[in-house]
Amino acid sequence: MKFLSLFTKAPQHQRFNYIPRFYDPQKEEMQERENRIKKEIEREQGIVSETPGDYRSRIAGSFQAARKRSKPAIGANAVMIRLGVLLFLSVFIIAFLEWGRPVLYSLFLFIPVYFYLKFKSK
Question: I want to staple 103 with a disulfide (CB 3.0 to 4.6 A). Which of 28, 85, 86, 95 is the partner?
């Protein structure tokens, strides 16, 4: 097996072409100031140039506008259903505490019969 590996290429280490960059903080600060001044002048003149980094102008009031457009979370119909379920549970608990197991048995007898009769006609 060693004999076959003599004719194959041995793996080499990975080489990277790294070109170092020169960083000049004064030049970068000067460019930022120039860009900020240009934007202020454009705003004063009424010219709106939206760049990819200028995200503040797009989302300035979008959260409040979305809140105004959104629908109310709970409708009147849902409130009535919730009230009916709570009323039914409270009456059932009071009846169970007052009369005991016969209420539980009658509940499981009458409710399926009621739903059967209600949906049978459809």
Answer: 95
